[in-house]
Structure formats: structure tokens, C-alpha cells
Design a protein that fits this description.
2 copies of one chain form a homodimer. Helices cover about 0% and strands about 45% of the residues of chain A. Chain A is built from 1 helix and 18 strands. β6 of chain A pairs antiparallel with β5 of chain B, so a sheet runs across the interface.
């Protein structure tokens, strides 16, 4: 006897403070930097905690070519990587949506949080953080993804929200 | 008694084959991939050999904000990281130039090679590969950089071409 109830998620602007329970925002705004290359570059160092060593893992650099989703979007499935972080950085200036829940048992629907990036931000999901698969908007976009490779990988868990209707709305204009 | 002699480098289109002695080209063209996220993304896995573990190193994710250079450019200084690879991926569709020499003793000027990317490619310099600092063109560009962090880092060597004039020309149109 499951109860079907509706819940609407409205994406909020992504900030490092709001995202801290879920991982890192990869961005340069208001971050320390130093001049290198004889003045031809500013280096913003160590923007994400890459956590991939568990059980013989190594860092993988990948590209995900994402197709856009349409909003509102029904959130049916969340995933997490219990052994590693996973970072996503868009390869063009491109806002996208993230839906996350804290690491641990699958979060209740009302504990999920949704964010919209400002077009220059990437995210790094901390190990075990629940997250929705990529939600690109408007047009296809490539993302550079840094995650973990290991032989005999078993680093993916899913949770389905079968008894609950969760709808991701468009961010406020 | 040094001899000053001129040498001109003309960037060639970057291909995986031509770049193989120096590292990886990070790109999706003609690479294997698999469909994930219920059809909403294609995953191109493991596009660069990230080699950062030496002497307690860990992967760093950084952003370099690069200022454009003007061509022709005098190549005076090359650098290498003897303990690690270093990957550069532009965060907008943006051609840039790379000048490289094989790992080992500092290469003679006539052993340097120059390449121009197609705007969607990144590069990963293999450990010890000599390379010129970032050469962005036209406008400022951010690059995602994956390299190595370690306490008491001593992972940078330079070579100056003092007795030789080396000039990097623009790629052929």
C-alpha cells in the first residue's frame, strides 16, 4: 500500500556553501590563484577532492556527450558511486541542473536538493553522494568527467523512486 | 662561442598518431563509446593516462585562465614535469597551440614539434615530456588541468634556448 504523492523540486543557484554537503563546485570565482607562465596564466589549484584510490582505483579522464532533457522532468532514479568521487565540467559555457542527496541510505524525496549552474561551474560529487544522471539543457553538451577506473568495477548503485512522484521544475528566470 | 641560428616552427594539425610520442590527445572523434543514462549520454572512457602517483602524489583538478599570445612567438623556454603527466582541456571550443619535445634530455631545437588543436581537443603531456607553457590564441580561455599534487613538490624543470632563435609561426589557414 504505497502512497503516491507529488513533490516538486525547484533548482536553486549553485554555490559552494549550499553544495558543500554533496561535494565541490569547480569554479574560479573568489578563489585564490597565482600567476604563472610569465604572466600569461592564472592558476586556480586543487578545485575538487578527487577520491578514486579505493581498492586499487585510478583516476579516469572521460568525456560524456550529453543530450538535453526537457523540463519539467520526472526524477525516477538516483545513482551513487560508493567507492569514489565523480567530477563533471562542461566543455562549453553551459548551465546544467544537478539533483543530489547526501551520502548514506537513499534519501527521502523531500531531502533531495536541486541546483542550476551559472554556465561556468562544474561539480564534483563526493564519494557516495546520490545524484541524478546528467541533466543538460537546451542543446547537446560535452562534459569532462573525472572518476575512477578499476578492474572488476562494482562502483555504481541505484535507487528508484517508484512510490513517489518527484518533478524537477525549471529554474526561476 | 655560441652560434645564433634561426629555426621556424610551423604548427601541424594535432592528431593522436602524430602526438603519440608526447602523450594523449583528449577527444571523442573515432573513439569507442557506450550509451549510458537511459540514452541521454555517450560515455567516452579513459582518454588520457593520468600518471600522478609517484612519491605520494595525488590528482589535482585545476583551472588555468590563459591570456592569448601573439604570433609569431619566440620560443625561449620549455618545461617538463619529471614526476607526472599534465592534462589540458579547453573549457570552450577553442584552438590552441602546443610545442613539445620528447621526454629525456632537453631536446635540440630542431627536434621540437608544434601542433594546433581543432578547437575540441585537449592534450595530456606524458610524464617528462617537454612542453611550452600554454599558448592560447585570440582571446582569454580557461583550461581544466589535471596534474599532480604532493607535499614539498619539486616536479618542474625548465630549459632555456638561449643560443638559438626559435620562432613559432601561425598555423596555415
Amino acid at each position: 500500500m504505497t502512497t503516491l504523492s507529488g513533490l516538486r523540486l525547484r533548482p536553486m543557484p549553485l554555490t559552494r556553501t549550499a553544495f558543500a554537503p554533496f561535494g565541490d563546485v569547480i569554479e574560479t570565482e573568489d578563489r585564490p590563484h597565482r600567476t604563472i607562465n610569465d604572466g600569461y596564466a592564472e592558476r586556480y589549484s586543487d578545485l575538487a577532492r578527487i577520491d578514486v584510490d579505493e581498492q586499487g582505483g585510478r583516476p579516469l579522464v572521460n568525456i560524456f556527450a550529453a543530450k538535453p532533457r526537457r523540463l519539467p522532468l520526472r526524477i525516477e532514479l538516483m545513482e551513487r558511486h560508493p567507492l569514489s568521487s565523480q567530477a563533471f565540467v562542461p566543455l562549453s559555457r553551459f548551465p546544467f541542473l544537478v539533483v543530489v542527496g547526501r551520502a548514506g541510505e537513499a534519501p527521502r524525496a523531500d531531502a533531495l536538493r536541486a541546483f542550476v549552474t551559472n554556465g561556468r561551474q562544474g561539480v564534483n560529487y563526493a564519494r557516495g553522494t546520490w545524484h541524478h544522471p546528467l541533466i543538460a539543457l537546451g542543446e547537446p553538451c560535452d562534459f569532462l568527467v573525472v572518476d575512477r577506473g578499476a578492474p572488476g568495477d562494482d562502483n555504481e548503485e541505484f535507487h528508484r523512486y517508484d512510490d513517489q512522484e518527484i518533478v524537477l521544475d525549471a529554474p526561476r528566470a
